[in-house]
Specification:
- With about 160 residues, the chain is mainly α.
- It is about 85% helix and about 5% strand.
- The protein contains three helices and two strands.
- It has a two-stranded antiparallel ribbon with strand order 1-2.
- A hairpin with a 6-residue loop joins β1 and β2.
- It starts with a strand and ends with a helix.
């Protein structure tokens, strides 16, 4: 037989082995159930915490990937703009070179046309050496015409006064 003390009244009881086993079983079952419930609560809280942590990590990973993709997009845009700028610069340089070549060819063509164009007779006669002769002839002709006009004028005046 076993002695059991009541926790409230502090009396001692004598219980046979079968009764003692039943009481121990009841106590063990209630403690076991209480511990089991506590462990289930703890496991549930850990599970919730783990899920929250996994969500946060997934969110952080997604944000990091998004930031990396945004950076890559910005880099590619910058490269594209730089490529466009360099293409525009190359095109403008090529256009300038072609325009210069066009202008040179146009000038050559004009020069060739001027060389092929027959000169007028007075242009062929005037050279640095014969320029003075030409100028003297023209001056002489001018003076002759001037004298002629002066004589005509005098004749008219004479006819007015008979």
């Amino acid at each position: 037989m076993q002695d059991i003390h009541c926790p409230e009244c502090k009396k001692a009881f004598k219980i046979d082995e079968a009764g003692y086993a039943d009481i121990v079983k009841q106590v063990r079952d209630s403690e076991f159930t209480q511990q089991l419930n506590e462990r289930l609560d703890i496991a549930e809280k850990e599970k919730i915490n783990a899920v929250e942590l996994a969500k946060q990590q997934a969110t952080n990973d997604a944000q990091k990937k998004s930031a990396a993709k945004d950076a890559e997009i910005q880099d590619l845009k910058a490269r594209l703009e730089a490529g466009d700028t360099s293409k525009q610069l190359a095109v403008s340089e090529a256009v300038k070179a072609v325009e210069k070549e066009r202008d040179d060819l146009a000038n050559r063509l004009r020069q060739a046309e001027l060389e092929k164009k027959p000169r007028q007779s007075w242009q062929r006669q005037i050279t640095p050496i014969s320029y003075k002769k030409h100028l003297r002839r023209k001056t002489k002709r001018f003076n002759t015409l001037k004298q002629y006009l002066a004589r005509k004028k005098v004749k008219k005046q004479c006819q007015k006064y008979p």
